[in-house]
Amino acid sequence: MKFMHKVNHLFYLPLLLSISISVHAQTLIEVFTDTPTQLGNLPGTEVIHYDLSAPEKIKEKYLPALPGDVNRATQIMKDYLASPQGKEFQVAIREAYRGHEKMVRYQLEKIPAIVFDEGKYAVYGITDISKAVMLYKAHLSQEVTP
Q: Cα–Cα distances in Å, from 95 out to 7, 76, 101, 112, 141?
């Protein structure tokens, strides 16, 4: 796990434990994993979880089996995408790929990652939101101190 600003998690001290993990009411925390993960919440935060394995699950759930004949498969997919279930699939798959889009925009290097300030800071290697907030706040206090 590391911050995008190259802060290594091994250097946090017991002092961090005394830092309050409460955050401002407008705090947005984005969590990127490749599995469904139970995440805790902190008061005054909005936590958005992006399960990067979701697109494959959506495909398995919605897409019909296709024959080997390309022309027939193409027609089946055209008919399917025009159907109510096909339209539902299109909405679901767009939503499922939102995490991938954000991961690229934030230039995340690996997962799991907990992201703050719309991609400005990332803590890698954990899904514990409280711990990530402590590391994030410690890093911010180091930026302010010369």
A: 32, 23, 10, 19, 35
